[in-house]
């Protein structure tokens, strides 16, 4: 089979021939039809001290199973922690969910994992109907779903999307945002009741400053960053860290309920995942380039 890997930090991505892996206990062997590309994986290529497998969301057909719930021929999607950029990948059954009839593999990788993160971050913010929501990285794979969920699930009266480029504003507004702001703006306008931050780093400060007194910031970025205690105290604000892996590991029943809710909203037309581009496996570097340049409007997907 074909597989994408790299040999050194920041090194080029290349295709290699590799044996088809054998599933271990509780694992599924999936013929990949679509693979979601994420910023954390792109960062691993440029920042990890040693090369790591390129993981990600996968969707496709089960061809071998050592699990209890799925059999060959089933169509599933889930997060692969091993080599996902490949013709075949191993998926632990606890991370797998069925792809409904009528939904494509591309729909699945654009909706499920990114949607779970967006929905989980929204839940962590404890939204109340009628509030103002601020979503950073609002045009990203997760952010564009968070914009929609803030309204449809959180009952927000006003949704503001923060973006890195004014060229993304029309896209974010088309998703239902009432307004957009740029990262470098001195003021982000009317204060928000809560913010979902997917960027971190130097943007934590402006996101916190954009909150009304008592506002809540949910940080779910792999970008790090520092918040001053004084900035929390002066406005009685809070910061909550959200990690999807913890929910999947410690609260599988909630994880499954959220997955079912996302598919329901998708089927009913209340949630619309957008795919920026579909890249061939041999052009994985091009897919990473779009993410690195922060040029994507929605999800970036590989087609093995």
Q: How would a crystallographer describe the biggest sheet?
A: 7 strands, mixed
Shape: globular
Tell me what portion of residues adopts beta-strand conformation: 25-35%
Task: Provide the helix percentage.
Answer: 25-40%
Derived from helix and strand composition plus strand pairing, the structural class reads alpha/beta
- Cα-atom radius of gyration: 19 Å
pLDDT averaged over residues:
94
Low-confidence parts: none
Distance between the termini: 10 Å
Number of H- or I-type helical stretches: 9
- Please tally the β strands and state the result: 15
- Give the SSE order as H and E letters: EEEHEEEEHEHEHEEHEHEHHEHE
Question: What does it look like?
Answer:
This protein is of the alpha/beta class and 304 residues long. 29% of the residues lie in helices and 29% in strands. The strands form three sheets. Strands 3, 4, 5, 6, 7, 14 and 15 form a seven-stranded mixed beta sheet that branches. α9 links the parallel β14 and β15.
Short description:
The chain is of the alpha/beta class. The protein is built from 9 helices and 15 strands.
List the defining traits of the structure above.
7-stranded mixed sheet, 29% strand, single chain, 29% helix, 15 strands, 6-stranded parallel sheet, 304 residues, alpha/beta
List the helices and strands and how they pair.
Blueprint: E1 2-5, E2 14-17, E3 27-37, H1 39-47, E4 56-65, E5 75-80, E6 88-92, E7 97-98, H2 105-124, E8 132-136, H3 143-152, E9 158-163, H4 169-174, E10 179-182, E11 192-197, H5 204-209, E12 211-219, H6 229-233, E13 238-241, H7 244-250, H8 252-268, E14 275-280, H9 284-292, E15 299-303
Parallel strand pairs: 8-9, 8-11, 9-10, 11-12, 12-13, 14-15
Antiparallel strand pairs: 1-2, 3-4, 3-6, 3-15, 4-5, 5-7
């Amino acid at each position: 089979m074909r597989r994408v890997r790299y040999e050194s930090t920041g090194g080029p991505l290349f295709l290699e021939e590799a044996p088809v892996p054998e599933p271990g206990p509780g694992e599924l062997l999936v013929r990949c039809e679509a693979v979601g590309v994420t910023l954390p994986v792109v960062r691993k290529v440029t920042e990890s001290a040693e090369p790591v497998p390129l993981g990600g969301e996968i969707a496709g057909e089960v061809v071998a199973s050592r699990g209890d719930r799925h059999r060959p021929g089933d169509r599933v999607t889930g997060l692969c922690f091993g080599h996902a950029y490949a013709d075949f990948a191993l998926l632990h059954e606890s991370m797998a969910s069925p792809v409904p009839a009528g939904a494509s593999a591309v729909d699945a990788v654009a909706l499920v994992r990114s949607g779970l993160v967006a929905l989980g971050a929204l839940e962590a913010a404890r939204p109340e109907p009628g509030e103002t929501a601020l979503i950073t990285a609002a045009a990203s794979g997760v952010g564009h779903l968070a914009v929609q969920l803030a309204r449809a699930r959180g009952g927000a009266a006003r949704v503001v999307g923060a973006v890195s480029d004014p060229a993304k504003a029309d896209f974010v507004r088309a998703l239902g945002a009432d307004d957009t702001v740029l990262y470098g703006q001195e003021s982000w306008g009317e204060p928000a009741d809560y913010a979902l931050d997917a960027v971190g780093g130097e943007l934590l400060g402006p996101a916190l400053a954009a909150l009304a007194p008592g506002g809540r910031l949910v940080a779910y970025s792999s970008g790090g960053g520092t918040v001053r205690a004084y900035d929390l105290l002066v406005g009685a604000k809070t910061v909550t860290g959200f990690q999807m892996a913890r929910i999947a590991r410690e609260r599988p029943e909630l994880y499954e309920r959220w997955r079912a809710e996302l598919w329901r909203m998708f089927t009913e037309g209340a949630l619309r995942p957008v795919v920026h581009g579909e890249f061939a496996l041999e052009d994985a570097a091009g897919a990473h380039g779009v993410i690195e340049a922060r040029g994507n409007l929605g999800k970036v997907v590989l087609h093995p």
